[in-house]
Design goal:
The complex is a heterodimer of chains A (230) and B (123).
Chain A (H helix, E strand, L loop, with lengths): L1 H22 L9 H13 L5 H9 L1 H23 L15 H23 L8 H18 L7 H25 L23 H24 L4
Helix pairs in contact in A: 3-4, 4-8, 5-6, 5-8, 6-8, 7-8
Chain B lengths: L5 H22 L3 H22 L19 H4 L3 H32 L13
Classes of the chains: A mainly alpha (230), B mainly alpha (123).
């Protein structure tokens, strides 16, 4: 009971702090200096209409590399945790999905994959990007597992895709160091016509790598969680 | 009736979600519910960050036919918090996946999901 009271007290004090912040908050009417630079110079410097992509992939590209690394580590950790210590694989066999679902998935699966690819290839033009596209690809895998629980992924293909994309990402970054202004500079490729698919230098290339990598990683994580359904 | 600005509403909702999630993590005994609490905190923080980046009347920071370059400085929201939240969502996803993997392992070995039964490293 005393513990419960302490929790309530702690949350109450925290809420008081938050209340101070929220009560004194006034909506901003101007951009911060750094954001002003990104908005004013971003289209010329990076050539990407989507400024969030410009910030994620180029201006703060190193953060994104770290983010990809964290996602990779968590995928590895999930794989390690779920395979070690003799996971109880003798779960009851999954209920098969109905024939309608199974047939629909066979048609939907490639379309969802295509949509994921569309999202990450167009990340510099419209809302979207590598992580979102990768998540859509993983959702296609999830759909597949829901409809056909016995389906297996080809691990060799996943590992090759993931490793090559990660390698390609770092390689593009190092090329930026050699050919352009610095690590992960997107001007290793010509900036091209503003607003076209093949523009904004290396951003579409990097986002394709990220999309493939995230899609492969999340699909592998989903398969680990599925277990060896027999 | 005071008219609240949009970002104040999302800011308040974010703080509310954060508190609800923290409550869930502190009070609940079921590990899955604690993971859900963490996800709520995560989402609350994302909402707070996006709210703080909002500029009054701003639109998405995508400079194309709809938002031309001349007026972009006053027409778009701050792209930096949006980019940070994108990063934070991915990291949150990774952490949630690892926590759920731990939950699966705990359930496999102890046949329970209650945190009270995990006393191995308690001293």
């Amino acid at each position: 009971m005393a513990k419960r009271l302490l929790i309530v007290l702690a949350l109450f004090l925290l809420a008081m702090m938050f209340w101070e912040v929220a009560a004194n908050y006034t909506e901003r009417t101007a951009l911060t200096p750094i954001a002003t630079h990104y908005v004013a110079q971003g289209p010329d410097e990076v050539g990407a209409p989507n400024l969030v992509t410009a910030v994620v992939v180029t201006y703060r590209g190193l953060d994104t590399l770290g983010e990809v690394t964290v996602l990779f580590l968590s995928a590895v950790a999930v794989g390690l945790l779920l395979t070690m210590g003799g996971l109880d694989q003798k779960a009851e066999p999954p209920t098969p999905a109905s024939e309608i679902v199974e047939t629909a998935v066979q048609y939907l699966f490639p379309i969802v994959l295509l949509f994921g690819a569309y999202i990450f290839v167009n990340g510099h033009l419209s809302p979207g990007g590598g992580f979102q596209g990768g998540a859509v690809i993983a959702s296609a895998t999830l759909l597949l597992f829901l409809a056909l629980p016995r389906s297996k992924l080809r691990h060799a293909l996943l590992i090759i895709t993931e490793s090559l994309s990660g390698f390609g990402y770092v390689l593009v970054g190092v090329l930026g160091l050699v050919l352009a202004g610095g690590f992960l500079d997107n001007r290793v490729l010509p900036l091209g016509d503003y607003g076209r698919l093949f523009s904004a230098g290396a951003i579409p290339v990097i986002y394709t790598f990220i999309g493939l990598k995230v899609g492969a990683e999340l699909s592998a994580v989903l398969e680990r969680f599925k277990g060896e359904a027999s | 009736m005071i008219e609240l600005p949009l970002s104040t509403i999302t800011l308040g909702t974010g703080f509310g979600l954060l508190l609800i999630g923290l409550w869930g993590m502190l009070v609940r005994k079921n590990i899955i519910r604690m993971v859900i609490g963490f996800s709520l905190i995560d989402t609350g923080i994302h909402m707070i960050m996006v709210s703080l980046g909002y500029i009054r009347g701003g639109t998405a920071p995508i400079i194309d036919a709809a938002v031309d370059r001349a007026t972009a400085l006053t027409a778009v929201v701050d792209p930096v918090p949006s980019a940070l939240v994108l990063t934070a969502i991915v990291i949150g996803l990774g952490i949630t996946a690892v926590m759920l993997a731990y939950a699966v392992q705990i359930h496999t070995h102890k046949k329970t999901l209650s945190i009270d039964d995990c006393t191995d490293s308690k001293w």
